[in-house]
# Entry
Amino acid sequence: MLPKIQIRYLNDDLYAGVIKINIRELIRYWSIMMSTSSNVNFNLFNQSKQKKLSDADVSTFWNKYENDRSDKEVRDKLIIQYIYLVKYVAGRLRISLPATISTEDISSYGVEGLIDAVEKFIPSKGVRFETYALLRIRGAIIDRIRSLDWVPRGAQKRYKQIQAFISEYQNKFGKAPNTELIAKHLEISKEKVEASMLEMESNTMVSIYDRRDSSPDGIELIDTIQDKKVDDPLAQLENRDVKNELSRALSNLPERERMILALYYHENMTLKEIGTTLTISESRVCQLHAQAIMKLRKLLSSKDVRSKSTFK
# Structure
């Protein structure tokens, strides 16, 4: 995803005031956008505060840029001049968009539309740039949001109709309509209403950084998601305790029995190979192995593993 552009305004006036922007992010964003273009001059971004140009200066820059579209310095100044339009459009669209779409994302999509508007605007046609740019910025934001949505537009439209009827019915009668009334109003089948509502509810997006309550210190959703790749702390503690208990129990066994268990379970030797190694018969190895297992079970069941002389 392209870097988010954070725009901070020191004056809320739409056509006047000083605009303060995150210069570093804007430069990085543009470097990606213009990577296939000729060299871009970003010297004008060296200052963090950019005053609006006078009408005469704006007109002069437009004339220069219309005559020479390769002049990136003039284009950059025009974009900075009209960057406030992004805030205006983003603020209007923010009201109707879901909370899962951040204001920073909306602004970054709007900057794409502003860049496109500056590069394609023709001043000689006599149209105000603000009027043209507002449409381009709004269209760029909506197009990008739609491209990120996997729910078909037809399903979204039907769901909005259902929600509108439910709201209207509740305001009029004080209760929610049943599925049959919704289907009759929209002139569709009951099954289609249920399928539409189920589809939209199952595709509802939430942010993993949403808080579970309105408190600023509330727990974020991401903090409640289990990481299945990491062992459960309680399971780790239990495993460690089991290993410690087993280690203490093994230390209470006679040396020969410990040797047999080590050769059998750790070295994967057969009973015959162990008998040859210890110069005892295979049947004797089997007997000692069984005795060692019985002693371990008794020690672990009684948890009397601290006594080192129980079976010695």
